[in-house]
Amino acid sequence: MSPVFAHGRLRLYLLKLLDEAPRHGYEVIRLLEERFHGLYAPSAGTVYPRLAKLEQEGLVAHTVEGGRKVYRITDAGRDELASRAGEIDALEAEIRDSVSQLANQIRDDVRDSAQDLREEMRRAAKESRRQTRNTDKGWGPDPVWERGDGPWPGMDKESWQHAKEEWRQAKEQAKEQTRQAKEQARSAREEARAAREQTRAVRDQVQAEAHRVGEQMRAHAKNGDWPTGLAEGLAELTRTLSGLADPARWGAPTEPPTEAPTDARPDRADAERVDLDPDLDTDPDLDRIDLGKGSAAQEDLPSWTETNESGDPLRELLGLLDRFRDEVRDHARDEGVTPGTLARARAVLAAAAHRLRD
Amino acid sequence: MSEWSIDAPHTLTIEQPVDRLKVRTITGAVNVVAVDGPTRLEVSEIEGPPLKISLEDGELTVTYEDLVWKDFQWKNLSAAINRWRTKRRAVVSLAVAPGTRIELGTASSDTVISGITAPVTVHSANGAITLVRLTGPVEANTVSGNVQAQSVSGDLKVGTVSGELTVFEGTSGKLKANSVSGAMTLDLAHGSGTDISLTNVSGEVAVRLPAPTDAQVRANTTSGDLSNAFDELRIGGTWGARQVTGTLGKGTGTLKITTVSGAVALLRRPATEDDTPADAPRALDFGKTEREDQA
Fold this sequence. Notes:
Chain A has 358 residues and is mainly α. Chain A has 11 helices and 3 strands. In chain A, strand 2 and strand 3 form a beta hairpin.
């Protein structure tokens, strides 16, 4: 920084300061410092000799107040100041430049310091970050992860890969499960459909069989040989139906509901029709057996329906009923009984009893 | 009321008391330094239309004729812009009493304010703002200009969009700063009873605290890096959002930092650096020579 005061300028400025008011030496120094914003801080060794010289020239005078010299401007001094007003203006201009220079200097200074600080702190932050990672693993999200080159801080590539692998596996498992569930649903639907088909086939067969036997019986009746026709027809019907009616009565209705309840409903209705139809026709069969006729038919009947033809018919009937009860009970115990089966059993038994009475 | 119009480099000494200063310029520089004695206004460079200076009820206003403080109307905007198109550059330096309230508004002027004890408000679009030894409350807003504050002991409130904030030898009781992408670097000289709140989106935030600090610390970042030099504080959170929480010393002050993607660093002030007293006489001893002496 170039000196604020060129040669002789300080002298002039001292006169200006004293023109404003009488001042003592220290006050002059302080004022100079303030007017020039700290850029120029004249020492006592500079100011006091100047003041003494001015006094010698008769431009200022001093009085002693409270042990200190107080300087005041003289008339000669005022004349001197007035004659050099232009120089004072130039001095002012110089001070003006000093203020903006001062501001620039402050700005540059602060900017430099700020820059230094930023760099220093950035370095410190980097260092701190490194230490945090290397020596203070416990602070991280997982002590195992030392490096943080993954997508999140504190998570390294390996663990990121690991996590990704886990997610992939979980996704595949979910997909597999969905696929299996779909498969199961489809197979259940398939089974239900098969069961329905089967039931329908059985029903059709039974109807056809019943129709055929009916025709036969009608033919025999027409010939006047109706007992034989009846016996033959019933035996054949019983033989045909025994294979179909039993599973239809107990097995088929219980299976489909466990797989696909909604699909199975029509099956049950079908099964009911199947059950009732043969029952109506098989009941006369029982009559026939009890009468001890139609020996050909006996071979095809289930073993428990065998009766001793030479015994007391009533006792044989009771025995037959007991065996029937056992048979039904065992079957029910093995296969389980649902409310639906029970209702159907009631209907079948009622119909059978009705037929037996006739 | 006194009025001046300045269209050439000029110096004005105002003997009347000034307790409020308002400056609004476009480009160039605005410098305000505190002095004892009369108010001085110095225009050292000027290009374009003249500056209008008025003094009324202790309020000194420096502005252009067509840049009005009050009664701004949007419908006049286009006309105003047309007039503004002419180049306006002014370097204005003011020496005012320390207790003068300062309000500066500039488009791209660099600003230096030093030694003021009264409230200071600075608004700038992209001019740098330098604040030195201010003891009153300070508010500084800038879009892309950098804000530098040295030895500011008054409450400091700074808002920037992309401008950097640097605070050093800061002793503010309250410090609040918001930025979108500007980095924040804070070096705090004394750490008790301070209330600091920093919010940033993507700029990094570094705070250096003196060794004995009393503060409740809560620093959050959503995806930024986090570093911490204080053993008393714990880094928590797992993937994504992470935070540093804890209490330093007696926990009398607060330090709150929130960033989205900006890194956060909590640093310890080097113990070797002795704290320079903040009560030195204003900002008038900032020559290079003194700095060299310190170094």
